[in-house]
Amino acid sequence: MVTIRDVARQAGVAPITVSRVINQAAGVNAATRARVQQVIDEMNYVPNTLAKSLRSRQSRLLALMLSDITNPFWTTVARGVEDAASEQGFHVILCNTDEDPAKEATYLNLLLQRRVDGIIIAPTTNDLQRLAALKRQQTACVLIDRRVAGFKADVVYGDSGEGARRLVAHLIELGHRAIALINGPATISPAGDREAGYRAALTAGGLPVDDTLILSGDFKQTSGYQLARQLLAREPRPTAIFAANNFIAVGVLQALSEAGLRVPDDLSLVCIDDVPHASAIDPFLTVAAQPAYEMGATAARLLMERLAAQRNLRPRTVVLPPELIIRRSSGPVGQSIA
Amino acid sequence: MVTIRDVARQAGVAPITVSRVINQAAGVNAATRARVQQVIDEMNYVPNTLAKSLRSRQSRLLALMLSDITNPFWTTVARGVEDAASEQGFHVILCNTDEDPAKEATYLNLLLQRRVDGIIIAPTTNDLQRLAALKRQQTACVLIDRRVAGFKADVVYGDSGEGARRLVAHLIELGHRAIALINGPATISPAGDREAGYRAALTAGGLPVDDTLILSGDFKQTSGYQLARQLLAREPRPTAIFAANNFIAVGVLQALSEAGLRVPDDLSLVCIDDVPHASAIDPFLTVAAQPAYEMGATAARLLMERLAAQRNLRPRTVVLPPELIIRRSSGPVGQSIA
DNA sequence: TTGTACGCGTTATCAT
DNA sequence: ATGATAACGCGTACAA
Predict the structure, then answer these.
(1) Rounded-to-10 torsion of CA B136, B142, B145, B150
(2) Which residues of chain A lie closer than 8 angstroms to B82, CB-CB?
């Protein structure tokens, strides 16, 4: 493998001069620069980022730790992160935690060893302790989608509380009174936000909150499916379901389909996070779409800004608004409502 | 930051001994090992992978270059790669090329500088020259989903030619005779395979091939939408459309929806690659699903196996079979067929 | 403008 | 079983 020394020898200059040419640093005679550049090309010299990083103490490597790259929401976040990062020559390591704290810990460990410059993470739990290693190693960090009380870091999340409020208000406006909530795990902030928004909307609409209509599982299709089955077995059954994310909504649809029920004729369904291509496939679903791409890009930019800053920046919080997408006015409410 | 020397000094041993403890190498007295380990824990020592990689000449870093992380097919591939890699302590850098050769070249360059151990790539074109740098730098490589004639590397792809054949045979069995193909760019091998499968199925079914029914764009929704509109304007219009991938199919659905046409009543639609959650949303679509997760995991394993091998392995090719998923027998053929 | 000397943190090699 | 030395490839600090 060709090294900077080989190039230097061949060009008849010192290694540092080659270094200056590579990094487009000032202080190199134009003629010298041209000659060195030519040798670089001729020899197919490829600078070694590893050595450079070791020396400069920055890897230009970010990590994105999320719960499920299969979910279009996270996919879009990842794209936002990746685009923003590559604009500034950063690379992104992708890590799937699967909501598993053990996996999360293992990854975190390895990433710190690798000296990534920063980590964008959607923590599996709101446990402050789990992120302590980041502080110890002084690795920059941005929380995405999920807040962790007491953890000093930049935070980027969608205002899903507001999204929840508007979705439920929409249902109330359509005449629904028995609106169920199928939520994710209470240990992460968006679940709390969404339940709060749900409660606020009911109260604002003059409706009582029926705690038995609030179910909690995780943010996956299976969970949505199982909890929906529980709801559908009730007598009378709710006339509308608010699914706390897109995968839960898909699970609900699966349960409805099995029960021979249709949306919106038999039951209304709304959720947080868009279901991509839903409009092309079956445009019934009203959703509060979070600006996933923006969330990712914003997180990456905050992180890189922090890395570039000379002094320590104060932790910043960015809350992005959701977009309500009403694909079809949910039509008449089903029969179980008087 | 604590270094291996700091630990060594504190534990009263040489750095190399600490190294042996970290790497669980043989040749360290149990008592010494325990003492060193204790110091490591006390001092919160985090080994520096950068330095390790520089010295050992391996980064335990893979890269995955694909065209669109937004497509569920690629998402699933990515997950397979990531899972297989992390099993062996490798990290994965994710790169979106957007089918843009310039982006691809830029990424490739940066990845080589970073000394990634290997690259899994779905090349934007079948241009051998574009991958020459990989050879020069002797960086291991696995082609995924797309072959490049003359490029000596492991290849993993789905047998989408067979998938195409079976899908079209299915349509013929249902009585269709005017079956259109909306394909991706001819410059990449899966597009060629799918057209070949399409032609083979028609011929085997005793039907003539009408070249005007074969349209080619790219593998994105917009392309599928536009080409579908062209097809629908024809008189008589085809009774079935074979979309060469899932995003094209979604574009077709969009066009159909705008035209007030329904699947399968007015027109049949089949495609390569699954549309996730389609079954829960509207189970009409017959697809030939490629084993995306397996493809990713296989590619990663081939790559890591090659890295671990002492000697040079011959290039290997793995072709994985598609799975035909018939979500609902496509029902009676529309009226435009006699 | 260009160059010399050294260090970043680790491991390979060889020695004890 | 343990250690001394050098080297991986580059950039900083300082010198010329």
Answers:
(1) 50
(2) 69, 94-96
The reply to whether A314 has its C-beta less than 7 Å from any atom of strand D is no
- The burial class, CB within 10 Å (0-12 / 13-18 / 19+), for A212 is exposed
Nearest to A106 by CA among A135, A90, A130: A130
Residue B285: predicted pLDDT: 78
Nucleotides of D under 7 A from a protein CB: 1-5, 7-13
Q: What is chain A's length? A: 338
DSSP, collapsed to helix, strand or coil, labels residue B139 as coil
Q: Provide the token pair at B152.
A: 């000596």
H or E stretch covering B8: helix B4-11
Mean pLDDT, consecutive 10-residue segments, chain A of 338 residues? 92 92 88 92 95 94 95 96 96 96 96 97 94 93 96 96 97 96 96 98 97 96 96 94 95 90 90 81 79 98 94 94 77 31
Residues of chain A positioned with their CB less than 8 A from the CB of B92: 93-94
Q: How many CB atoms lie within 10 A of CB B8?
A: 18
CB contact under 8 A, A254 and B93: no
| Nearest of A83, A137, A142, A146 to residue A114 by alpha carbon | A137
CB within 8 Å: B69 and A82: yes
Is the Cβ–Cβ distance between A99 and A66 less than 8 Å? no
Question: Would you state the pLDDT for residue A27?
Answer: 81
pLDDT at res. A333: 35
Higher pLDDT, B241 or A279: B241
pLDDT value of residue A279:
63
CB A171 within 8 A of CB A179: yes
Residue A44, CB, strand D, below 7 Å: no
Cα dihedral A126, A131, A308, A60 in deg (nearest 10): -110
3-state secondary structure of B187: coil
